[in-house]
Amino acid sequence: MSLESTELKIGGQSFKGVYLAILLSLSTTLGSGVWLASSLYSRLEAVEATSIPNITPIKEQIKLIEAELEANDVSQLQGKLATLGTNLQTILEQQQKLLLIDESVTELKLEIEAMKATVVKAELVSQKVSSFESKVSKVSREIEDLWKGLDYLSNPLQ
């Protein structure tokens, strides 16, 4: 008895064994999709946990220091002022990188929301599949009982 010739009749509908095999493979695919979504969601939560520091007060302090140095006209501190300018440039570059990270986090939040919707859909499909499986097992049990009854009726002495 091969998978192609196997047939299951449920409520007037007949299901080929091939279709049952396809249904099984589809349900395992959905299960692995749910697993993948869960794994990705936990990774994204870890990314969201990183905090972006606010460097606006630091920029204001640097501007105040530069203004005081220019007002005092301290020529011997010109080298330190150049270093401060370089540090300010570095801070500005870092701030731009942080803004890019903030944009990435926003995009990831949107993707997480889309994944949550997919997970909910997958859970609904999984519930429907489990309900269908219980119905199929009941019908299978009834079919086996009917065959046993027919066997008994055909040969009651056994």
List keywords for this structure.
single chain, 158 residues, mainly alpha, two-stranded antiparallel sheet
3D architecture notes:
This protein has helices spanning 17-48, 56-72, 78-154; strands at 7-10, 13-16. The protein is rod-shaped and about 120 Å long. The model has no long low-confidence stretch (mean pLDDT 83). The relative contact order is 0.10. Helix 1 (17-48) packs antiparallel against helix 3 and helix 2 packs antiparallel against helix 3 (78-154). By secondary structure, the protein is mostly helical. It has one domain (7-147). A two-stranded antiparallel ribbon has the order 1-2. 80% of the residues lie in helices and 5% in strands.
SSE topology:
Elements: E1 7-10, E2 13-16, H1 17-48, H2 56-72, H3 78-154
Antiparallel strand pairs: 1-2
Helix pairs in contact: 1-3, 2-3
| Proportion of beta-strand residues | 5-15%
Would you count the extended β strands for me? 2
Question: What's the overall geometry?
Answer: rod-shaped
Radius of gyration: 34 Å
The total count of helices amounts to 3
Strand order of the largest sheet: 1-2
Low-confidence stretches: none
Average pLDDT score:
83
The SS-based structural class is: mainly alpha
Order of helices and strands: EEHHH
Distance between the termini: 26 Å
Helix content: over 70%
Overall number of domains: 1
The main sheet comes to:
2 strands, antiparallel
